[in-house]
Amino acid sequence: MRFLIASLLCAGSVFAQQIGNPTTQEGVIPPRGIFAIRNARIVTVSGPDIENGTVVIRDGKIDAVGADVSVPAGAQTIDGHGLSVYPGMIDAGTNMGLVEVPQGANGTVDTSEVGELNPNAKAIIAVNPHSAHIAVTRVEGITNTLTAPTGGLISGQAALINLLGTAPKEMALVPEAALVINYPRIGGGGGGFGGFQQQPANLSETLTANERQVEQIRKMLRDAEAYGRAQDAYAKNKSLPRPDRNVVLESLVPYVRGEQPVIFRADREAEIRGAIKFADEMKLKPIILGGDDAWKVTSLLKEKNVPVILTGIFSLPSREDDAYDVLYEEPAKLQQAGVRFCISTGDAGAEVRNLPLYAGMAAAFGLSKADALKAVTLYPAQILNVANRLGSIEVGKMANLVVTDGDLLEIRSHIKYLFIDGRPVVLTSRHTELNDAFKNRK
Amino acid sequence: MKRFIARLLLTAIVTSLPLSVVRAQRSAAPETLIRNATVLTVTHGTLQNTDVLLRNGKIAAIGKNLNASANARIIDATGKYILPGIVDCHSHSMLDTINEGTLAVTSMVRTADVLNPTDPDLYRELAGGVTTLNLLHGSANPIGGLNTVVKIKYGRPASEFIFPGAMPGIKFALGENVKRSSNPNLPGVQRRYPNTRMGVEEVIRDAFTRARDYKRAWDEYRAASKNDKNLIPPRRDLQLEPLVEVLEGKRYVHAHCYVTSEILMLMNIADEFGFKVKTFQHVLEGYKVAKEIAAHGAGASIFADSWAYKIEAYDAIPYNAAILTRAGVVVSMNSDSDERARRLNIEAAKAMHWGDLTEEQSLRLVTINPAIQLGIQDRVGSIEVGKDADLAIWNGHPFSVYSRVDTTFVDGEIFFDRQQDLARRAELAAERAKLEQAEPNKPPAQGQSPQAPRRRPRGHVDDDIEIDQP
Amino acid sequence: MPKVRLRLLVAASTLLLLISVTIAQRNAIDTYAITNARIVPVSGATIDRGTLVIRNGLIEAVGANVTAPPDARIIDGTGLTVYPGLIDSYTNLGLPEPSPSPAGGGGGAAFFLAAPPRPVGGPNSTQPAGLQPEVMVEETIRSGGTEIESSRNIGITAALTVPRSGIWMGQSALINLAGDTPQQMIVRSPVAMHVGFTPLRGTYPGSLMGVFASLRQMMLDAQRYRDSMQIYDRAPRGIRRPEVDRSLAALIPVIEGRMPVVMLANSEREITRALDLGTEFKLRLIIAGGRESDRLTDRLVKQKVPVLLSLNLPRRTTAAIPEADPEPLRVLRERVEAQQTAGKLAKAGVRFAFESGSLTNMSDLMVNVGRAIENGLQPADALRAFTIWPAEILGVENQLGSIEVGKIANLTVTRGDLFDRNSRVAHVFIDGRPVDLRPAAGGGPSRISVSGQWTVNVNLGQGDTAITLNLQQEGDRLTGSIAGPLGSGEISNASITSAGEVRFTVTVNVQGQTKEATFNGRLENNQIRGSVTIVGAAPGTFTATRAGQPN
Description:
The structure holds 3 protein chains of 3 kinds.
Chain A: H1 2-11, E1 34-42, E2 50-58, E3 61-66, E4 76-79, E5 84-87, E6 89-94, H2 123-126, H3 132-138, E7 142-147, E8 154-162, H4 168-171, E9 172-182, H5 203-236, H6 247-256, E10 261-266, H7 269-282, E11 285-290, H8 298-303, E12 308-310, H9 330-337, E13 341-343, H10 355-364, H11 369-374, H12 378-383, E14 401-404, E15 415-420, E16 423-424, H13 430-438
Parallel strand pairs in A: 1-4, 1-5, 6-7, 9-10, 10-11, 11-12, 12-13
Antiparallel strand pairs in A: 1-2, 2-3, 5-14, 7-8, 8-9, 14-15, 15-16
Chain B: H1 2-23, E1 31-40, E2 46-55, E3 58-63, E4 73-76, E5 81-84, E6 86-91, H2 120-126, E7 130-135, E8 143-146, E9 148-151, H3 158-161, E10 169-173, H4 176-179, H5 197-225, H6 241-247, E11 252-257, H7 260-273, E12 277-282, H8 290-296, E13 299-302, H9 320-326, E14 331-333, H10 344-353, H11 359-364, H12 368-374, E15 391-394, E16 405-410, E17 413-417, H13 418-437
Parallel strand pairs in B: 1-4, 1-5, 6-7, 10-11, 11-12, 12-13, 13-14
Antiparallel strand pairs in B: 1-2, 2-3, 5-15, 7-9, 8-10, 15-16, 16-17
Helix pairs in contact in B: 5-6, 5-7
Chain C: H1 2-23, E1 31-39, E2 47-55, E3 58-63, E4 73-76, E5 80-84, E6 86-91, H2 108-113, H3 146-153, E7 156-161, E8 168-171, E9 173-176, H4 182-185, E10 186-188, E11 193-195, H5 208-234, H6 246-255, E12 261-265, H7 268-280, E13 285-289, H8 297-302, E14 307-310, H9 329-338, H10 341-348, E15 352-355, H11 363-374, H12 379-384, H13 388-393, E16 411-415, E17 424-430, E18 433-434, E19 452-459, E20 464-474, E21 477-483, E22 489-490, E23 492-496, E24 501-510, E25 513-524, E26 527-534, E27 540-546
Helix pairs in contact in C: 5-6
């Protein structure tokens, strides 16, 4: 298949030689252009499937899509016979690019800042565009991740990135996409995403300690609110004393004003309820990340229109008496209850490529296949407020597309072509390279 | 048909003898006829619209339009699939403790001593179509404890879990865990030897040298004591006895390992002392030395695609299964995790995705291949007449992400059934309500604070080098 | 050698009893007659109205038609019932408090690695403490103490005293709960070898698997030691002398089935493992704890394994907090089923005896027997499980366990039926002498009250930490809570004795770790002073000062 795209790219005269080894720094990313995928089944996600149609990509965007779309002059074409075109998948709960090897190599870990309150720790600053995880992940059809810091109470700001680029700036779709708050846990952590958090084992004490921690967060957010008002007042009226700038508080202003979403990591029922109550009180725009117990809180989530990024599908049930499928069937339960959700691996990086399997498991346990697909494409785009740019195949959206020889979520399918930001991406990674290097060793 | 009946008779005779003891418990449904399924036999291809008859704990017949006795349980499996019970060649389920980490050589400890048959994860694994587990000691030491192969007979006493006739095994471990790379250097605490891969080799070499001497001492004693009754026998040494069994080919070595150097090292020692490594566990860099592993005759029991969780896992690639398989190595996909064990079907399917193994090659990764690695291939791992009735009925192809298990059989008995599970939930809720009203369960007026809840760890375990709590 | 020692001991204690008649200062009269009492001999039919004569520490006569001898001190038994003295078949009574661990009191790694209270080890042992079967409690038993007192208060007259900890914990002794010296107290020693399954820390065996391997290896070593010694003793010339090993020597009666082995095991799988090990080495096994032993009655009957059944019945101790997870069904079932165990054992014909299972509040013991009776145990069997059955299981059935002429005069005399909640212990006789009883359960040590708010300075080796302690006392029942830098929570297992000894357990938070702390102190001059024991840490001290006077 790499041979196919290589020959395809050779046909286009401009960038054939420029596509280098994607796991080493190539310096230049593949250029945009005009591409047409013909005779393919097109799974638009936002609308009905087109059994035999064409998608045209121009200058990074989806230019046309439909059964009767004609191929523009100068377009490089891909014969999509027997293939399906999907929007790229989005994992909204990762540390992609912030950590290479979590254990035994601290130098490669940039997830957690020192201290409890770090709203100004921005993932986009530290994302390593040349992390092996990025190519390994994208060649499986995941084109975007929300990359979040993890430490303390206020972890920092997450970035929504394309999994392609030679600099964080090139990758960023939304460099400061959400503020991430670890809502104080009532139980031991243990989720793959948040890492281990030492907790006193006594519940009353934990609750008391949590109250104090929430108060810490509250105080900082109130300070930011006051700071924003003071700066605004000064901007309108320069006769007021000029308030000092404070980069930390300043970074919080769009979040405390409800302009940008705040992600609360919360799994247990009490944590989720606490986070929603807190967000209400502070007039934030909350998103729940984790959400193992969200199925117990559906009416509140629906009433407050709080979306959930579910990361627990491949976790063991939290309690020994839980039904064996409690987390498998959680997406179906949220769907039935009308709660907005999407599915994430919640993984640092290495496992993110298995995102389609998480969605597939949800479909095995009650979620419709169509909704399972949406849960890793359109729903995360909507939750992250980028549905005008990502998540489905619609004219005008960013051309993040995956061409497969089968159902996108099925592990037996293979990715045949990949476009990110309208750029054709070679399907190689550290893993394909090592495979190539050793598979013929005699 | 005649041949069929003959076969039935034969299997009935063969199987009834050892099972007579437990037969009484099975009286509820001595026979089960699963009708019209797609049967993934693993060893003899895929059979469409086929019936499978289970009797006395064995697969009694496979074919079209089979007949069963009047009181047989009949299951219509139209549109459904039958897969042999999945064999997980690396598990730590149902172990009350995983590591005896105090010493570098702990071949005297036995996982069989610490089985917990009530571990709820066992049930969750049954719900993923898993029926057999290789319970291994952890990876805290170069030579660890003895394994136990079990069938998941959840709800029964531990003794009924033991897989009869499985080859005894022992856990070895090489690399970072043994070096205790992730243990803190505590002041005043002496680090345990070994601290390098060099030291690991030394420990194993020394242990086998001692084992060889031990065997010699006993041989000499046995010979001499025929004439001299006044000889004091050598000390029986529970640490060395299993290693003697390894030297004699009576015990399989399952060796946790990652990188090229340590894989080659262990094979060299094994060659030198004249034993075989039965399986390399994890063996993430196995693809780099596939031909050497094949030449040694070792198997590989691996993760499908885990990588980069520590330094020695950074060169792991998901093509490992394909490269090793093509080199002629018997490969299995294991879980090393109570979580992952629930979806080993998909782990196997990954070999079709990465490396393009065939469906049959991939099915083997979690069925007959791990069975071979445990010496139980004559009992489980494929759907064949005469084999144990360990299998699961799936509502779709087990390699589809959209499929799940309907019913899991072990020795012909149902140990998981989704419909029964759903039906039981209301009963359990009622039982809980009743129990909570019982006097000893009422919260006292002035009670202590309950413990904060703990969430179970997810995913990858990598043999847990955590310090075991007593 | 143990047999000889035993005989000597029995002889010695008998002798001592005889001598004590003349030398005892407390009570010169040693002949008693309890008249007009209801007598429940356990070994025979109940005598509705009869007389029991005690002389020389022994039961001299018993019956409806027995007349009190003229030299006897008469106790009018009208309205009283006389039972054989109750036996608690697994305790640490008479043992000194666990010795503090040697590690410093610092935090961090030292805290993490600090050993739990060290098992008592003997000198010149080949084995580390915890693996020393040669340890004998008879060497460490002390007379007196409030724990013995509170056991006697509810009618316990004799107890099996077992080493506190270890894998090979050592050898137990059966003691009478009265006597001025340990020698006077001991009825039989050694009674049994004891095995616990708690791994050592930081050294092999550090896991349950290792514990089993150690037990096996030492029993194999003991076999070889015995064989080697026999061979050597036969003809030492030309044989290298085997090294003397007290630990292995102590195991020889065990592996030869001459000495019973008591294994601590509560859950079904723990008991199964013990039974398997017992079978493997042909041991004379006894199970102690036995909470789920009712699930294994077939095996217990078949292998003739008796059970020392704990009466420390589990019950919920935690408050209902909405954020808490519901308790697992397993736990809910366990608590309910534990009440039924005794009844099921009796029905299945498993021999068993009751033990207090380290209940801190001994007044709960009879309450819990009541719960067992409500859940299917026949009262007559409950009585046997406190008297003749423990005597048989522990090998003292010719001395204790029933009211028969010639047996040791250990008697529990109650007003009302023993298992009736309203009954009271009126008299306790041990070795033929009445024992001073403190006000019985319910009445409580009325002279003392610790109710009120206390400021407690806790010193765990790093300076004082001040916490607040609230205590409420009703009789000898004590409840309360702590608050402060060590965390807040309810106290449990709390008790107060008439001597002002206060004891409770509470969950504390030290260095970010949650630990069980046991406070043990004595009230004096409106202050409680004493020690704090935290598992896995060096012991500390505390001083509590009462904020105001009790109300």
